[in-house]
Amino acid sequence: MAEAAPRRATYADLEAVPEHLVAEIVDGVLETHPRPRPRHVAAASRLSGELEPPFGLGRGGPGGWIFMTEPELHLGPHVVAPDVAGWRIERMRTEPETAYIETPPDWVCEILSPSTAGLDRGPKRRIYAEAGIPYLWLLDLAGGVLESFTLTAGQWLLTGTAARGESVAAPPFDAVPFPLDDLFPFASPEA
């Protein structure tokens, strides 16, 4: 007798997840993990704070972007929530009428943590490529490294890295570099 196909997660499954967990639907599977630790949330806030003035508001930079932290994205059958995402203003001139967004962003940043690194580097990176998102940053807080990728012919090309003590000048935000160390408000656990 043939085995029944595994049940695909639904949006109702996602809505039923307790609020103390983050939930996403990836490849039909409900993925849950704990809410991010304070250093993770602080890094996302600081990254948004670095990018918003020059790229969102045009203060000292080109402007033309909208940034959101943890937006709920519906990318085909997948429901994902990157740590930070950005859209060029011409692609999102009006606020979506739903709590989720179906327009793929032009850039996403995932902040890696032990509970999410495999998902972020694996299936979510593939999903972002399939959605045609042109730029992806992966920020490894434990390693103190930011990797930037550009989507080229459907594949991610590593276009640069920045380590602690260096400046970030990575596409699409290379016009206004900032110190990577500014994303680390807390002393490292080794200090």
From TrEMBL:
Domain Putative restriction endonuclease: 11-172
UniProt keyword Transit peptide, yes or no: no
Pfam families reported for this sequence: Uma2
CDD domains from the UniProt entry: DUF820-like
Gene3D superfamilies recorded: tt1808, chain A (3.90.1570.10)
Domain of life of the native organism: Bacteria
InterPro entries, sorted: Nuclease_put_TT1808, Restrct_endonuc-II-like, Uma2
Keywords: Endonuclease, Hydrolase, Nuclease
GO molecular function: endonuclease activity
Protein name as it appears in the record: Endonuclease, Uma2 family (Restriction endonuclease fold)
